[in-house]
Model the fold of this input.
Amino acid sequence: MSQDIAQFKKDSPMSGTLRMDRMSHIWCPGCGIGSEVNAFAEAVKRSGIDPDKLAVVSGIGCTGRVAGYVDFDSIHTTHGRAIPVATGLKLARPDMKVVVFSGEGDLTGIGGNHFIHAARRNMDIVVICNNNFTYGMTGGQVTPTTPHSAVSSTTPFGNHEYPFNLPFLADAAGATYIARWTSMHSRNLIQSMEEALSRKGFSFIEIISPCTTLYLRRNRLGDGVDALQFYQENALLKHGADTRTLDLDFQGKITIGKFVEKDKPTYIEALDNQCVKVVGDDYELYGKTIPEREAEEKAEKARVAERRAAVLAEEEKARAKAGVVKVSAKIPVKAGAKKAVAKTTKKAAAATTKKVAAKTVTAKKTTAKSTTAKKAVVKTAKKAAPKAKAKAAVKKVAAKPATKKVAAKPAAKKTRK
Ligand SMILES: Cc1ncc(C[n+]2csc(CCOP(=O)(O)OP(=O)(O)O)c2C)c(N)n1
Ligand code: SF4
Ligand SMILES: [Mg+2]
Done:
């Protein structure tokens, strides 16, 4: 490695969360996995979680390679077994945040049984599922989510099976946090991953993602950029949507958002409750009583909050320096809440515009005495006006839902030979 590249890797904003020494990665150009990993690294950084208390488990597949690129403890385990390995890890180290990052084939094909039982138990893990509708690594075979009629190497005349609606599957099985995004929705993804990392219980995030080399090419859907444009034009934001309505058709609309967020005792909490009933308050897990473990948890939570506040303050400083407006907020589950956020953001935008305008007027009043001063004021006012407009525009964008309802771009045509 040349000295320059070594320095570049060392200076990368991702070093510390991603293993820059292992770059470049194996993923194809346009594949969605890279941006998802980037979003994950960003979410971890912002979450305030101690990197030494985070573990990532992946199964086999292109997505399974994620475990090899994160700079946390990680396990690249066997096909379909990411969830049982993560479960074992969580039971052995309840103080750790355990994340599964795997493909839909790994998680819901060969690993489907583990998936539903971990959700049923409300196992305290975060499951991030890269859903590219195909077994990417092994040559583009049909998976449990391949849309009806899509072409794959094992369904050359079109898939005749009915695909899983993953959010509904997770919901029916008992998951307590469920969201779906596409690999294009980086900002939502970061927020959603941050939320999932900061809560307890089985959290499931599905990410619709392009497998450019096998799925897109085989279905004549263009390249990675075409896929992102398709997501942009066909994603419908619907927080709190009924998970039964989230089926995906071949090149149809993609409902995205946070659909479920609820509290329920986790597997370990339910076990604790049961054991206290049987053994009494002397019950211990790993030599610690429940109040002792709760105290430790509380102390760790305070440390996480402190680290998070420091990271956000740094970000705020950088934003202020660059003149960028803050847009982050907790994702609302209901559409009504979303409207409220939009309203508040719009109000804030109007207030900022007024403030800037007022500043300009004050400057005019106080300094416009001499002709040169007047000239300077005109200059300032001219400068301030587009700035105010730009600021208002940025806020306006923030106030809009992350995606717009756009008239369906004709689905990229699937022509078969
Ligand atoms: C027990 C077992 N069966 C089959 C395989 C072959 N195999 C490796 S990866 C893979 C598919 C992975 O698909 P997915 O999870 O969707 O990940 P992607 O490559 O699409 O990211 C299969 C079938 C294996 N490694 N082990
Ligand atoms: S084969 Fe598909 S899933 Fe695998 S890296 Fe390439 S584009 Fe991504
Ligand atoms: Mg896949």
